[in-house]
User: Fold this.
Amino acid sequence: MEYRFSHRVYRLPFRTPVRTSHGLWAERTGVWVRLEDETGKVGFGEAAPIPWFGTENVEDIDAACRTLGENVTDHLLDAVPTTLGCLKNALNAARAGELSPPEDLAARQVAGLLPAGPGALDAIREKLEVGFRVFKWKVGVGDAADEMGLLDDLCGELPDGAKIRLDANGAWDRRTAERWLARCAERPVEFVEQPVTPEAADLLRGLAEDYPTPLALDESIVRDGDVTRWLSDGWPGYYVIKTALLADPDAVLAALKKASAKVVFSSALETAIGAQATLRHAFAWTGSKHALGFGVWPLYENHILNGPTALPFVRWDEVKALNPEAAWNALS
Ligand code: MG
Assistant:
């Protein structure tokens, strides 16, 4: 198949800067791609790299897109190297064709995002009121003893069956991780995400064995091959999957499904174009279901650029209603 190819670098300020372990993140940059085939059918994709995760950066993607030129073939698109995983993802998404409804149309549960620090307490009360029952709280930001005290306050707010996920973004050393995991044991903590850095893989494995609270890999998964490695390693915990970072999400998800892995779909803070692609994967997933890590939108001022807004459930209609073409045109 031959296509007309175009791409656009976008640079969009977040409505509120995002606090990360690498400081404040004020604007999202990425690349949108558009492919029009010989029959006039148009598809869009988004390359949404997170360079401090270890992906390629926007300059690499832009340069590769310029090299591709205006007229491309499947052969040329498939030859984009896997080191440009986010770009491959975008090109695959743009070729994925019409959205077909998933087998299971039930709405998917979404985890409510709580801010780091004491602000989490007001936030959990508000979110409980609108119906959230799974929460994600950023830890490893303040003093560990203070945060552990806050965890008890947060757990005290939870009705029966509700759960909280902790995300340390790799901030803890061994001692801190051990203290936390001992603390979590008797509490309604669904899992602890990335307690230590991806470099400390042996420590991660040891902690997963020594404590009852499950652990989840997030920063440890940057490329398709990372999932393959942890699967063959027999990782017992959860996999936080940002499909936006994977060159071939279909293949990775098939491997995870085959291994009966526990998968938590998660946003890479994409715009509507990437959101539709990643939610499509989340809805197609037929393995065990865990609340989605998509409680992030609205991230951008222009509503046409956002994924479904942070409510306790996301419905297939909302995924279908996202309009990649309108997003593309909004920046022209
Ligand atoms: Mg995380």
